[in-house]
Design a protein that fits this description.
Elements (H helix, E strand, L loop, with lengths): L1 H16 L2 H8 L3 H15 L4 E3 L4 E3 L1 H27 L5 E7 L1 H8 L3 H7 L3 E7 L6 H4 L3 E5 L7 E8 L2 E5 L1 H7 L14 E3 L7 E2 L5 E2 L4 E3 L2 H9 L5 E4 H9 L4 E3 L12 E7 L6 H14 L1
Parallel strand pairs: 3-4, 3-5, 8-11
Antiparallel strand pairs: 1-2, 5-14, 6-14, 7-12, 7-13, 9-10
Helix pairs in contact: 1-2, 1-3, 1-4, 2-3
Length: 292
C-alpha cells in the first residue's frame, strides 16, 4: 500500500503543478520517477488519467473523478494514521504551513528547532507567500495571515496582534529632516507596497493613503530598503522591533497612529471542511505561547 500511496501522491502533484517536470521539481525527484508512477496507476486501473499533448497536460473525465476520490481517500488515510499517533500522545505526519516571508523569517523559523524537539514525528513543510494563495490548490494545511479576513470558506484562530510603526533610518532623517506631523509626509520619500493597495493606507487619523516613491512586493524588501535609508516605511513590529531596539530604525509619528487597527491582527486559517488535526493544534498552541 505504501508504494501505491506514493504513486497517488505523485499523481496529485502532477495535477496540482500542471506538469511532470513541475511535480518532479516540487518533490525533488526525477521526472522519470513521476512519469513511471502515473503510468503504473493507469496500467493498474486500465484507464487513461491524463491527456498528454506537447502544449499542455489535463485530466480526462475518468481522471478527474479518480483524483477527487484520491484526495479524500489520502486525507482519510492520513487522519487514520494520525489518530493512532494521538493514542500514543505523539502527533505525527506532514504539516504544510504557509506565511508571509517576513513573518516566516522573524516569527517562525527562530523557533523551529524547539518545535521539532517537542514534536519529532511531525514533518514540517514551510512555504513563504507574500500574496494570498489558494490553500487547497497549494495543499496547505494552515496559513498564518496578518490583517482582516474576508474568505468565508476559512476557519480562523486569532493568535494575537502585531502593532505597526512608521520608521526610518537615523541616516535618512538626518539627511532629510524630521517628520513630526502627518502633513510632513509630503516632504519625505515613502517606501510602500506594489500590492495590494490597501497596504499603502497608513493608520493616521481616519487613514492616509500614501503615494510611495519606492515600492516592493515583500515586507522584508521594504524593511531592507528602509534600513538602507531610502525613506519612511509602515511595518509590523514583529519584523522591526530588533531594528528599533538597536537604534537602526527610529519611530516617527507614533503619537498620531491609530491603535488598534485591523492590520494588526494575526490569524491562523484553514478550510472549514478540514478537521483541526492534532498536528495543526499543537503547532498553533506552541507558537501562540511563543508569540504571546
Amino acid at each position: 500500500m505504501k508504494s501505491r500511496s506514493d504513486d497517488l501522491n505523485l499523481l496529485l502533484s502532477v495535477v496540482d503543478s500542471g506538469s511532470f517536470s513541475g511535480a518532479a521539481e516540487q518533490l525533488e525527484v526525477s521526472v522519470t520517477r513521476v512519469s513511471r508512477a502515473v503510468s503504473r496507476l493507469e496500467q493498474s486501473l486500465n484507464t487513461t488519467l491524463l491527456n498528454r499533448t506537447t502544449r499542455k497536460l489535463g485530466l480526462t473525465e475518468e481522471g478527474r473523478i479518480f483524483v477527487e476520490k484520491v484526495r479524500s481517500g489520502l486525507a482519510a488515510l492520513e487522519e487514520a494514521e494520525e489518530q493512532l499517533a494521538i493514542r500514543k500522545q505523539r502527533p505525527a505526519g506532514r504539516l504544510r504551513v504557509d506565511a508571509a516571508n517576513p513573518f516566516l523569517l522573524h516569527q517562525i523559523v527562530p523557533h523551529i528547532r524547539d518545535f521539532r524537539e517537542a514534536y519529532p514525528d511531525i514533518e514540517l513543510e514551510l512555504t513563504a507567500s507574500d500574496q494570498i494563495v489558494d490553500l487547497l490548490e497549494r495543499r496547505i494545511d494552515v496559513a498564518i495571515r496578518i490583517g482582516g479576513l474576508e474568505d468565508s470558506t476559512l476557519h480562523a484562530r486569532a493568535l494575537g496582534r502585531s502593532p505597526l510603526s512608521i520608521v526610518a533610518s537615523p541616516g535618512y532623517l538626518k539627511k532629510n529632516g524630521p517628520c513630526e506631523s502627518p502633513s510632513d509626509l509630503k516632504d519625505h520619500s515613502i517606501i510602500g507596497f506594489t500590492a495590494p493597495e490597501s497596504l499603502n493606507i497608513w493608520h493616521l487619523g481616519e487613514g492616509v493613503r500614501v503615494r510611495p516613491t519606492l515600492r516592493a512586493s515583500s515586507g522584508e524588501a521594504v524593511r531592507q530598503l528602509c534600513l538602507q535609508g531610502n525613506g519612511l516605511a509602515y511595518l509590523s513590529c514583529f519584523m522591526i522591533s530588533e531594528d528599533i531596539r538597536r537604534g537602526e530604525l527610529l519611530e516617527v509619528l507614533d503619537e498620531h497612529l491609530v491603535r488598534p487597527n485591523p492590520r494588526e491582527l494575526v490569524n491562523a486559517v484553514y478550510y472549514r471542511n478540514t478537521a483541526l488535526s492534532a498536528r495543526i493544534r499543537v503547532f498553533l498552541d506552541f507558537f501562540e505561547n511563543r508569540w504571546g
